[in-house]
Amino acid sequence: DQQVKQNSPSLSVQEGRISILNCDYTNSMFDYFLWYKKYPAEGPTFLISISSIKDKNEDGRFTVFLNKSAKHLSLHIVPSQPGDSAVYFCAASAVGGDSWGKFQFGAGTQVVVTP
Amino acid sequence: DAGVIQSPRHEVTEMGQEVTLRCKPISGHDYLFWYRQTMMRGLELLIYFNNNVPIDDSGMPEDRFSAKMPNASFSTLKIQPSEPRDSAVYFCASSSDLPPYEQYFGPGTRLTVT
User: What is the share, in percent, of chain B residues with pLDDT greater than 70?
Assistant: First the structure.
């Protein structure tokens, strides 16, 4: 069962505009969330994280928002740059529980930033 | 640090053959993970180790798959016998047990079973 869902397989955005990537989860035990970025022929690389005690975390152009009641998180990239073209995965885990370390990944969203 | 190292980068083998994938985690990381990525199932966790001990292997698809971690700097994922449906990209990742708990992924091994 897919406990982490990224319902948009792709997103096209103009350079300089905002990219918004969405992620939904079903397991209420999840309390830690990560976003990864993946280029072709490379492994995913960590982008930003958020724990359930926060509703927002910011790192440069990247901001992650968490809405626990809706079991929804989003990643905002502002402004989008051509180098942001990649596949973005969200991942969730119950860090405080027995399954520490076991992150469930979404299917990914392919972002294409056009000039 | 060189990051997580995986070998081989590409493997092409015939159905029925044994395949061994190798991983060297980042020094000092306590956790090691094996993932498989396919178009159909996305990125799925196969097994993970803590301090060389397997913690959860519920993602291992069947008995044809096995993984070992004989020491803190080496792990293998073995498929015996291999089947065409095992064709995928296999990633190894490692992490510490400190926030933000991010996993560092290797470049992956692209496995093709004909």
Answer: 99
